[in-house]
Structure formats: C-alpha cells, structure tokens
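In this supplementary section we document a worked example of the pipeline. Step one takes a protein sequence of length 201 as its only input; no multiple sequence alignment statistics are reported here. Step two produces a three-dimensional model, which step three serialises into structure tokens for compact storage. The input and output of this example are shown verbatim.
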Amino acid sequence: SHLLSVPLERLAREEGGNKLFSNSVAVGAALGVLSYEFDILAGVVKEVFDKRGEEIVQSNIKAAQAGYDFMQKNYKDICLSPLKSGRSDKKMLISGNESLSLGAMAAGCKFMSAYPMTPSTGIITYLAGKAKQYGLVAEQAEDEIAAINMAIGASFAGVRAMVATSGGGFSLMAEALGLAAMTETPLVIIYSNHSLLLLLL
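The serialised model returned by step three reads:
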C-alpha cells in the first residue's frame, strides 16, 4: 500500500482560482493513478457543471487536469499502465446484481455468503449457478449474523470473500462489523436497497 501526498488546496488555487476546486483536483488525481483518458473526465465535468456557466466548467477541468498531471509526474512508478477505452459491437444486457457478481468473480472472490433478502438475493443465486465453473463457494446462511461471520472467517483464512444483504439484514450484521474491524479482516459488504423499486411503483 502507498500513502500519496497531493497538495489539493494549492493546486485548486493555482489552477482553479479557489480552494473549492479541491474535489476536482482529487478526482483528477485518482484518474491519474489509473492512467485513464482525461478527456472522459473532462466530458463528465462539462456535463455536470454546464448549467453553471463555461467559467465554472473550465475551472473544474483545469483543477482536475492539475491533479491528473501531478500524479503522472510525481508518482509515475505506481501509476497503472494506460487503459484503452473503446467500443465493441458485442453488448451485454444484465441486471445490477449480475454485474456485481461478475465484478466479484473478476476480482477473485472465492466465497460469498448471504441470507436471502430482496433485492440482494439475485447475487447469491447468480454466483451459486457459476460456483462449480469458477471454483467458488456461494453459501446460504441461516440468518444475516451467520452470513457475515462466515464471510469474515473465510477472509481471515485468506480467501477473498463478500456478503450481501438489504435493509434490516444489515442492522443485524452491525456487531460482526466490529469483529472485522478489531481483527483488521478485509470484507466486502454489498448493501442493496429498495429505493429504485419504490420510485418505479
């Protein structure tokens, strides 16, 4: 792990004219570590701040560029190799739960536990269907407390693990979160909610 020092306020004042642009510097710096194309961020900044006028747009872009350039210049050794963006004719139509599951598998997750609770249930059912093919374990626990403790145990043993839940299920996991913190055990928790469903009703 690395602790990277970035003079956010100084760069914000120098390039944006105000320390309020520190957030844009930070976003640019994060993108700089990833070596992703800056033009994509510039487009997002323009879209977000367009209604506030061209001056605000350009100040944010300059601040973000300053953060990006700072990382590329001062931390070149740890910046990732440039990522190439591109479009493909092949497209996937998948749900949010399926995309989370695919991301977990791509990241090397080998253990997932959960107690079925809508709308997070689709994650464990998807991973269970791929378990044999990709050599992972998808375990349905007897309750949310058991689910998070299973994931903590797997992670403590050195396995990349995660747990998924929703609403009240997360409240039941609170005590075990303290255990993960005390033992400094890495853990990924997916918290799903019904907000989108409520908006659609």
